[in-house]
Amino acid sequence: MFYKLRAAFREAVENFKTELNRDQIPETVDGLLAGMYREATDAKAYVSKLEKDLAAARARAQRESEQADVCRRRQQQAERIGDEETVRVAEEFAVKHEERAQVLQGKAEAILRELTVCRSDVDEMLEQIKAARQKSEALGATAGRTEARETLGRADDLFRDFDRMGEKVSGTESEAEAAEAFDREFESGPTREENLEDRLEELKRRMGKR
Question: What's the whole-model pTM score?
């Protein structure tokens, strides 16, 4: 997805440069600047989504690791009293939690790599936008036309709105998408863990009687 945003932004930059090379401020310059802003804002929103997805993957991996530790402790408890069936079930679920944690840790690492690249690209976009504004202002001063100055004024408004546009992206949707993706990936997970909990509760009662 991000490479499409980057390609669209670069196309907008090239179109903008083409218009500037005509030594005039055309009526379309504000539209071209607006296009650059839209692409950069979408890219910034995608970075925000990746940041939330990374946090979600790390949190899920941590929970799976904690559940694996719980199952391992229960396995040890069952071993001490010779409950072979509970030992087997507890170990089974411990392994499944450990496998999930490993997959999620790998997912988090992949997201982090993509996020690093995307952040760098967004920084580059912002630098290009800054340079475009400076060129527009210089050309507008050379043209000395009221219309040109008004056009550049509208462009300045777009620049000031950029960060606000990026901040309007809802984090709730990103979090929901991340959670849904993780649920789909692991929807075939264990369905008998409730039975394990019942067995372990019985194990605790039996240990308390000894």
Answer: 0.60
